[in-house]
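This section describes the prediction task in plain terms. A model, or a person checking by hand, is given the sequence of a single protein chain and must write out its three-dimensional structure as a string of tokens. No templates, partner chains or ligands are provided. The sample shown here is typical of the held-out split.
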Amino acid sequence: MRTDLLHKLGDTAPTDTEDASHGSVGEQVYARLRKDILHGALEPGLKLKLDVLKRNYDVSINTLRETLARLASERLVEAEGQKGFRVVPVSVVDLREIGELRQLIECHAVRKSIALGDLEWEGRVVAAHHMLTKSEQQMMEDPNSHYETWQKLDLGFHVALMSACNSRWILREHRVIHDQYRRYQLMALRTIGFRGQELLDEHRALLESALRRDAEGTVRLLTAHIRKGTEMPLPGLPTQ
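The expected answer:
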């Protein structure tokens, strides 16, 4: 089942922000490469040889260089001096650092949202949670078919909680960090499975605490929620 899931995502999962069937050639190859990195079709640490990418993605070397530089700015690939590029590796240390930064950004934004949020914010949070709950129930039945939707709705709920923080920069930086986290999220799903009812209960508790305008309680729940994700046992994950 885990192998089937990886194969399915690597072959068919669309990007989050751009449709690879539209836009310029550069935008299309950016969307495809970004998807393949986030979903593990291009494995962490993989050397990205331009001749291989040129053949597989049917694009010019110049477009590839521009695209890889763009992905490097998002910290999804890294330059190796004059040796080219590789997919950013994964490790236990990296996961913990990503979790710490996500916690700092998200908890700060949620605290501000609870203080500043109006009825429209509450409506966004409730609606996002409703859709996430439905998706999580589907995931418990068949993660192969519903992972892609669940991942988007999981992000959507967390963004809704932060959405009244009145800071585009916070939301942008959160998206960068969350993209890094997603690679580990997929690794966890492949190796240890979906957390199921436990995850539903955590999201429900976050919803109820936020709607009570209990900022400290919500931050405590959110901190524990993120920490669980960074402490998940991932077999074979390098320690450094």
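For orientation: DSSP finds ten helices and three strands in the chain.
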